[in-house]
Amino acid sequence: MFFNDLRRHGKLAAKRHPMYEKNKFGKVFMYFMAVFWAGYLISIGIGLAYMLRDSFPGMEPYHILNKALLVILIMDFLIRFPFQKPPTQEVKPYLLLPIKKNRLFDFLLLRSGLSSFNVIWFFLFVPFAILTVTRFFGITGIITYNLGIYLLVVFNNYWYLLCRTLLNERVWWIVLPVTVYGILAALEFVPDNHPITTFTMNLGEAFIAGNILAFLGVLILIALIWLINRNIIKRLIYSEINKVEDTKVKHVSEYTFLERYGEIGEFFRLELKMLTRNKRCKMSLRTFGIIVILFSVLLSFSTIYDNAFMKNFIVIYSFIVFGVGILSQIMGFEGNYLDGLMTRKESIFNLLKAKYYLYSIGVLIPFVLITPAIVTGKLSVFSAISYMFFSIGVVYFAVFQ
Questions:
Q1: Which of 12, 164, 269, 281 has the most CB atoms at less than 10 Å from its CB?
Q2: Cβ atoms of 174 and 186 closer than 8 Å
Q3: Do residues 63 and 198 touch, judged by C-beta distance below 8 A?
Q4: Which residues neighbour 397 within 8 Å (Cβ) at sequence distance 6 or greater?
């Protein structure tokens, strides 16, 4: 079956990656972090059940959590940026094969929809539903509730793919998600009856009750955004293949001030050139910068993320997203010059040191971007400094192993 072949090709591509066998600590660390976050989400789900029951005695806890479904989906959307890549690059090797292109795009989108990334939120919602939904709706309510949440996350997955694919083509497409979420925020906060949270509360209860219309509505939305994704990917793939670009001579900085630092300075210069010239790196840096700015604004000027968990999550995410987003593919972008480097006596250790120095200095960027949160008193200076050094000394150290 073609779908199974695509999945097998994806697994083989991961196993044949140059760093698959070398970065064993990184793999162990990733598995550890996956187990850690699973346990963390389970504890949050259990804690929310009791906390919401005590804080809002006049409402059921699942009503309150359902009101926050849009916030959870926005978090899910943002978390995907450093970890999930659009399928456009995977399409190219298959274009010359005698395969129906629509079938190829459909299978790639199906594989994305069935990704294990989409079941992460089960670790929060399943224990929460067991403690809050069971006494009213039994096991059936738990199953239908989590099935509805899963469908919303799958829809969010395709919404992310659409935005990310367009962002990779033109950075100005950032206007699309910002506009959509801005309109939803305006609809929520301008009227006094808060229609968005009321709608998500009713939608969540419809999932629990097993309302067929609620599931059918979400499935229709998934089908629509599936078709939009397929058409967008098809157009962008063929336009990229057939496109002819004019070469323009540009003045490029040589970073001559780094020459005084010898071999490490030379690698430092190579890393800077890679970040400023490689299209994928530039796109990632712009995206991460926009996400950090949005987080900073929300943390500084709203009360949505005033609880301790969200505040800690936003700050640590802001500090590590730049480094982890690029370093998770360490020695992958360097393929352009790595073969030539191996024929010389230069030290790979110095290359890694230059990377570590650069990304350690780079944490000053998110420190500046979250300054509004410090000015408004939402975050203390010493907390920001401690998170900054935690990112450098613990997170980056683990990524480099």
A1: 164
A2: no
A3: no
A4: none
